[in-house]
Amino acid sequence: MNEHLHIALRLATSGVPVLPLRAGKLPFGNCPACANNACGGRPNMKHPGRCTCPSPCHGWAAATTNPHILNSPTWARSWRKAAAVAYHPGGAALTVVDLDNPAAIAWAQRTLPSTQTVATTRGQHWIYQGAMDSVNAVRDGVDIKSSMAYARWIGRGTGTMTALPEAVRALAVRKPSPVPTPQCIAVPAGGAGGGGECRHRTPTFLERGIAMAEQQITEASSGVHSTVYRTFLAVLSVHGGCGCLTDTHIARLFTAAQAKGETARHCTDAWTNACTRLGL
Length: 280
Description:
Layout: H1 3-13, E1 18-22, E2 26-27, H2 59-62, H3 67-70, H4 73-81, E3 84-87, E4 94-99, H5 102-111, E5 116-119, E6 124-129, E7 135-139, E8 142-145, E9 151-152, E10 162-163, H6 166-171, H7 203-218, H8 224-239, H9 247-259, H10 264-278
Parallel strand pairs: 6-10
Antiparallel strand pairs: 1-2, 1-3, 3-9, 4-6, 4-8, 5-6, 7-8
């Protein structure tokens, strides 16, 4: 039996939902319509984390404890090419505090109660009993992986798993950082030239576009960096040249991105790069 599949079946038996990962710690598209990432891996907006094929086959939503699915012919192709096994912590009522560097580990040792610890390539996974929302970059080098996320299975590690502490839950409750004013376009108070009204679109069109952009960022379950950049690019391609975007519109987009774990600096960089690409 394939080594990765053997590990996956053993974990599934213990109630841990699992899925195969390809090179680069990326999930497979485990249905014919999504083979080789043909669908682009884009989530269904009504079901974050799920692709638009009839059944969930991407990322955390594909994780399962069902041995019939894990042993199915479609999944067998993925297991043969798999580079690692991943699991859905939230599906197993677990939370992984992903510590990516020595400074993050030192912070955890000072701040968090000890628990089961797994050594990773760059740092450690601290695993707690209990699920919560997943949040990236809660601190420098610290991600939280639980619901709607997957973590690579490395082993059971050492130590005794303890209950999810309030100190970890509190990390997910963050106020967005102040939004710096992007420099690529000049935005006069109330919008440029038309009291905030776009010269070629109605204000309703602009409001709907900003709301849809916020939703797209909010519902991103993976690839948040690229989703934020693509969304900024789409908004600027329509409204970046006519002066209808105000600081309030931009702040809404930045706030949505920061709620998904992006830093203010990453937001500014993504906005600037989108402006540069469009020549604004």
